[in-house]
Design a protein that fits this description.
The structure is a single chain. The chain is mainly alpha-helical. The chain has a single domain, classed as MOB kinase activator (Butyryl-CoA Dehydrogenase, subunit A, domain 3, Up-down Bundle), CATH 1.20.140. It is about 65% helix and about 5% strand. It has a two-stranded antiparallel sheet. Strand 1 and strand 2 form a beta hairpin. Helix 1 runs antiparallel to helix 3 and helix 3 runs antiparallel to helix 5.
Length: about 110
């Protein structure tokens, strides 16, 4: 998980990737691979959600934070799927987990 967060941070801090200037004097567009960079970051962050839900959800329940984590995941899910930033087949691990548990904990 640490490597994923470091990867995402490095990508976001790379000013060439995430800055776009559009003013009357200078116009610098997003790089051509901007969408691919975003997709890769979101795909890796989704894997962190999967890991947390599968391996650490019992701890989240003990802390009473399941509503917060579920809300965070729902926002992430709706954002990524609305903008087609994560391939549907990447979303299958959490769907399978939901079906295996017969619980609505993972419902979007």
């Amino acid at each position: 998980m640490r490597r994923t967060i470091i990867f995402a941070t490095v990508q976001i801090l790379a000013l060439k990737s995430f800055l776009c200037f559009c003013d009357s004097v200078q116009r610098i567009p997003f790089p051509k691979n901007f969408i691919q960079i975003c997709k890769k970051i979101l795909c890796r962050l989704f894997r962190v959600f999967v890991h947390v839900y599968i391996h650490h959800f019992d701890r989240i329940l003990l802390m009473g934070a399941e509503a917060h984590v579920n809300t965070c995941y729902k926002h992430f899910y709706y954002f990524a799927t609305e903008l087609n930033l994560i391939d549907r087949k990447e979303l299958e691990p959490l769907v399978r987990t939901e079906q295996d548990t017969h619980d609505d904990t993972f419902t979007c």
